[in-house]
Amino acid sequence: MTALEAMGERARDAARAVGRLSGADRNRALAAMSTALLEQTPDILAANRRDVEKAKQGGMTPALVDRLRLDENRVRGMAQGIRDTLALTDPVGEVMEGRRLENGLQLRKIRVPMGVIGIIYEARPNVTSDAAALCLKAGSAAILRGGKEAFESNAAVTRALRHGLETAGVTAAAVQLVEDTSRETAAQMMRLNRCIDLLIPRGGAGLIRTVVENATVPVIQTGVGNCHVYIDESADPQMASAIAVNAKVSRPSVCNAAETLLIHSGAAPRLLPSIAAALREKGVRLRCCGRAASLLPGVDIEPADETDWETEYLDYILAVRVVDSLEEAVEHIARYGTGHSECIVTESYANAERFTAEVDAAAVYVNASTRFTDGGMFGLGAEIGISTQKLHARGPMGLRELTTVKYIVNGSGQVR
Amino acid sequence: MTALEAMGERARDAARAVGRLSGADRNRALAAMSTALLEQTPDILAANRRDVEKAKQGGMTPALVDRLRLDENRVRGMAQGIRDTLALTDPVGEVMEGRRLENGLQLRKIRVPMGVIGIIYEARPNVTSDAAALCLKAGSAAILRGGKEAFESNAAVTRALRHGLETAGVTAAAVQLVEDTSRETAAQMMRLNRCIDLLIPRGGAGLIRTVVENATVPVIQTGVGNCHVYIDESADPQMASAIAVNAKVSRPSVCNAAETLLIHSGAAPRLLPSIAAALREKGVRLRCCGRAASLLPGVDIEPADETDWETEYLDYILAVRVVDSLEEAVEHIARYGTGHSECIVTESYANAERFTAEVDAAAVYVNASTRFTDGGMFGLGAEIGISTQKLHARGPMGLRELTTVKYIVNGSGQVR
After folding, report:
1. pTM, rounded to two decimals
2. How far is A68 from chain B (nearest CA, A)?
3. Among A85, A366, B37, B146, whose Cα sits 20 to 30 Å from the Cα of B99?
4. What pLDDT is attached to residue A94?
């Protein structure tokens, strides 16, 4: 048995133990985890300094180093995050539906814990506590596999969380961190079907692709967002500009940021110059199709090619394409979109209805920024990621999406 | 582009067309499919005779030949099955939840079609029409890949269904049959991520395992049922015997049939002899642990080993094991069960509650036969299979389980 298989077995046992806890007991454990995180702040910061030092020496970009770095405030934020999760409604035990069958059998469909949830993630150490807390709140055990850049930080956070669990009388095996951060163990984890009920990769497109290609355990794909803002012929000029700018620049590094602006040819001559100016003013580089370029004489733009339509820049770059119809916009989105968040800006009732009906994505917006696709915004309370696949969960995933169901059937001797 | 990729592209386009149809239009298409099936009965039966002839020459067992064989009645049954599906409530368009956010955004979570559903199945030609009808009713296109033994039958059925679609003005590409029944195309189909949104294997454990091992498209595992009946110390003797016999013999070849009988050591001396006699009378062979064997002197039994606990016999064979406690029964089920259907026979309230809480399976029964796990029985109207995994669907899958969701967000210029 490999170390990972042994960890899987421990997780499976822990999941059964956690699954038997009442909501109150799970909340007590979460409170203890939050407290332990605060108490062990010095250890966590010391470990994080070692990670940061190593990352700098290794030439990590300042933006990534910033995502990796913890300070007292951030640790406090992580502890508060656990408290916030604690305060959410317990998803476990909800009777989702039920009826009495003609033969007298009483059927109930009940929400139950998933079991063991694996999370593979990249540089941010706060994911360690966020994910552990969500899994525990949902009645499941977690196997966490963070990036090697954050290993020391993740290990220190996990030690604190496990100490909290033990303080509350819950098995520490409910939260385990994979210590070997090699690709081999990640690959092993993706095939640990006997022990992992659900695997969620959180990270860039490369990680997601690797997991989807290699996993035999059930996976939920998250977070790749090649999102579009389509400005229809009838769009309100002010609104079109405000939404295009907000969707791109309010936080370019996240998955719900827009990557391509599609604009109807009937509106482009009138609207594109001012929208482009507003974007340029915010420091956005524009990669334009030929027709868009011809409408922006003297503006500092770059030519777009096929690759641009496919790219999730996650940066101050926006592809721009002129289309001749709503159909062409829908077609473009069907071809290049990743099914995350798509927006139409329009004053036409019919076009709003057609766009929302025909665009196949987790979230489809009329006259609002794609940036709203978020568990907090949607009222889920917390979020483990944003699903871009169609099975089990689509869009922001909260506690409910970390559970499964079970039919309980009470009889009095019925046979068939 | 391979033939299968081209088929996938056609299915993707067809899914968009079908997704735009109203429920009434989909129903008209289903009615036409049903009619076409009846009209083309002679062709279908002729094709089926060729399959049956070949199967007999190839030495197929009589039971399998029976599953393969169609007659007028069976074709009428298939046509009626499509009519029954037509009559079900349209799952598409249901507003599952919704609210107005503080910023005025109006959020709705809507049930929408899955897109393209792939089904890989084995010998029964009726799956072709059942699956096609369910997928169409749910607003999706279907790519069907049946077993090579039934190929001529499946092709004739598909021709009829596609003729029906065309009669109703719907693209025939909404229902496509993979013509190359080699393992290679099945393997290709499992990796057609750009075109298949959901793949459902229907068949034996070997097929399911192959699909889970090799698929990169989202899969729902179905139908492997190593189901248990646990007879608790307090069980009513009559009820225990009736349920054990029914769960085993009412239809041994199906996934919700029981494969192992667990019996509490406090009840075994009293109950096992009569239960064993009732099972033997129905022609059931018993594979017994040592303690069970010692309670059945003179009864014609066979010794059980580890393999028996793992085996889904799908036959008139039942493994029998004496356990010393409910915990031991739960433990056995956790170790060997496939998460399908599990039953306790008990008069103890506390034990009924513990068993239903602690056994992790799609359906957990108190004092009723495992044989009730079925879409029709559970009131789903029709069933595409029984999910034994925890993601997306668990237990009998009906039309709702063939759909996904989409958030539609209506705004008036909101930015973040």
Report:
1. 0.94
2. 25
3. A85
4. 97
